[in-house]
UniProtKB/TrEMBL annotation:
Listed name of the protein: Parvulin-like PPIase
Keyword Chaperone: yes
Species annotation: Qipengyuania gaetbuli
Source lineage: Bacteria, Pseudomonadati, Pseudomonadota, Alphaproteobacteria, Sphingomonadales
Record flagged with keyword Isomerase: yes
Entry keyword set: Chaperone, Isomerase, Periplasm, Rotamase, Signal
Signal peptide residues on this chain, from the entry's feature table: 1-23
Domain PpiC: 200-298
Amino acid sequence: MNAKLLAKYCGAAAPVAAALAFAASPAGLFAQASVTANTLDLPQQVTMLTNPDPNVRKATAVVNGHVITGTDLDQRVALLVDASRGEMSPEEMQRVRAQVLRNLIDETLQIQAAEAEDIKIEQAEIDQTYARLAAQNERPLAEMDSYLRSIGSAPASLKRQIHGELAWQRLLRQKVAFFVNVSAEEVNELMQRLEASKGTEEYRLGEIYLSATPENQAAVEANAMKIVEQLRQGGSFVAYARQFSEASTAAVGGDLGWIRLPQLKNAQLEAVAREMQPGQLVGPIAIPGGYSILYLIEKRQVLTADPRDAMLSLKQIQIQFDPNATQAQNEAKLQGFLQGLETMRGCGSANEIADSIGASVVDNDQLRARALPEQLQQLILNLNIGEMTPPFGDAKDGVRVLMLCGRDDPEVQAGPDFDTLMQQIEDERINRAAQRYLRDLRNDAYIEYN
C-alpha cells in the first residue's frame, strides 16, 4: 500500500518542485559560529530575558500572509518518511524538513498565483481526486483517512497537496501553455528522425533534476548525493522525485516516458543513459544549471516490437523432494525425472508422462514474457513450440522445467503520431517556462520565517 500511495501523491506535489538551495552542514555552521563568538567576548553563561512558552505554537513560515504551521510541515514530512522505507538519521531528517518546507512555500505561491488570476479549484474537484486516489489503492475513503493518520500525516495535508497541483497545472495552461507554439515543420522533422532511428534503442527514464548556481553548487551536489544514498537504501524514486525534483516530471514521479537519448539534449546524460541497465540508478550527474539523477525503468527498440511483450502459453513440470529422504533416494528421483523429460514429445504428452514420474504440471496460457525472471526471459524466447528449458531449482524448492506450448508475438508499434510528438515538444517548452515563472514568484514573495 505504501508504495502505491506514495507513487501517486508524496511530497509537495507541485509540478515544479522547490529549488535546492541547502545550507552548509551543521558541523560547518558550528565551526563558523565558534570563531565569530570568540571575537564578540560573549559570556559563558547566557541569561535569557524571556523564556519561550513550549505550549505556544508559532508559524514555521508566513508566505504573503498565509501561515504554514509546524503541523503542516510535520504532516507533509510524514509522507516522505513513510516512502523512505527505513529510519532517517537526525541529519537526514533535518535536511528533509528543510526541503519540504521550501516545497510547501512553493505550493503556497502557486495557489496564490492561481487565485490572483481568478482560478479557483472547487473543493468537490479536490475531493474527487482524493477519492480516486483511495480507489486506486483499493481502500475505502475512511480507511485512507485512517492510513494517513497512522503514518503521522492527515487527509487535509494530502488534499492541500492535490489543491496545489491542480491550481498550478491550470495556471500554466492559462498563462504559459497558451503562448507556446510548435510548428508543423518541427513535428515533421522529429517524426523523420524517429523513423530514421528505427531499430535503435529507446529508454524509459526517471529523472530528478536539481538546479544549482555557482554560489550553492557545492551544497546542492552534497544534497543530491544524500538523495541517491536514500534511494539506494530502498527509498521510493517516485516519492523523492515528487518531493525534490524541479522538473515538471515531478508531478508524475520523475517519469520521462519513452524517449530516444538525443531527446535528453545533453551529451553527458546521453552517454550515461546509454550504458545503464534496467533498474540501475546513476547520479548525481553535473549538467549545465544543476544536477540530474537518472533511473532506467526499461528500454526497448524504436518502432520495433519488443519480444518480451509476447504472450506465452507455458507448462511448468516440477518434482519436490522429501526432506526426510536420503541423498541417494533424492538423486534417484531426480534421475527418473530427467529421463522422463527426455521421453516427452511436445505439450500433448507432458501431462501423461509427468504423472508417470510423479511430477506435477501447472499451466499458464496468458503469461507475458517480460513477467518472467530476467534469467529465463531470453531462454524462453529462444525456444520452439514443444521445447523445454534446462532443469533448474534445488532440493529445497524442487526442480522444474518450463515447456513452451504457444506464443503470440506482439504487433509492431506504429510509434507516436503527429499530435503526440507535438504535445511532447509543447510540454518541454512549458516546463522551461514554468521554472522561470516559479523563480519569479519566489523573487516577488514576502516570506517570514519563525
